[in-house]
Design brief:
7 strands, alpha+beta, 38% helix, two-stranded antiparallel ribbon, five-stranded mixed beta sheet
Length: 222
């Protein structure tokens, strides 16, 4: 329905349907995946006449695949569209203050393209009800990170884009820090910890001993 509305022809392929994944993970993945696929349709794939003029098949291709490797779930979304204009993305990020001139000049093509996941970096000329709907790809990255995953992007102008999502197999298997508050114990996800300090028990004992000695000295003087 979306492809017809956009006047585009697309063949959707999917692989890895038998791969098992945590139910909670699926619920968290639904919106990011839909956002990426809609983006591929709206901004990635060209119309049949433009594809034909550039020597491509009139029917575009979007491939989504899933596999388990090295204890991770790896999902890729690939299209054979026009790719992402990395220079345009980087310029938008520069205008928004996300990077400075020095960073802009030293970044390679893929690093500039990855800036599309930055807050407010949308190259869409107008908001539509199909892809971003006014929401940038930064929301996709944030949602993936909440699941304990990471996302990377490879793109080439005129050739297409590949987005790779790497996730733990289940939300139940996440690295955490065991802490105690009073007689209560908790586990904090490592991804939520910015900084931690080692409790110096010996130092605390020394301070208590000094206070105790001072108290005894004061009592003796009295």
């Amino acid at each position: 329905d979306i492809s017809k509305k956009l006047g585009k022809k697309v063949e959707f392929k999917h692989y890895g349907d038998g791969v098992e994944i945590d139910k909670a993970m699926i619920e968290g993945l639904t919106d990011p995946l839909m956002h990426i696929i809609r983006n591929s349709l709206d901004h990635g794939l060209e119309t049949p006449d433009i594809r034909k003029a550039s020597g491509k098949e009139e029917v575009g291709s979007i491939i989504i695949s899933a596999e388990q490797a090295n204890g991770q779930m790896i999902i890729t979304i690939e299209d054979d569209g026009k790719g992402i204009d990395a220079e345009r993305v980087a310029q938008k990020a520069l205008d928004n203050g996300l990077i400075d001139e020095n960073q802009y000049n030293t970044m390679n093509n893929n690093e500039k393209a990855m800036l599309v996941f930055g807050a407010g970096v949308s190259t869409a000329k107008e908001i539509t009800d199909i892809s971003g709907r006014g929401v940038g790809m930064d929301v996709v990255k944030t949602n993936i990170q909440k699941l304990g995953g990471a996302i990377k992007l490879d793109t080439e102008l005129g050739k297409g884009t590949i987005i790779t999502i790497m996730l733990p197999l289940t939300l139940a298997i996440l690295d955490g820090l065991d802490i105690a508050v009073g007689d209560q114990k908790y586990i904090l996800p490592l991804s939520s910890i910015v900084e931690s300090y080692k409790n110096n028990v010996r130092h605390q004992k020394t301070k208590k001993e000094k206070k105790s000695r001072r108290k005894k000295q004061n009592q003796t003087k009295k």
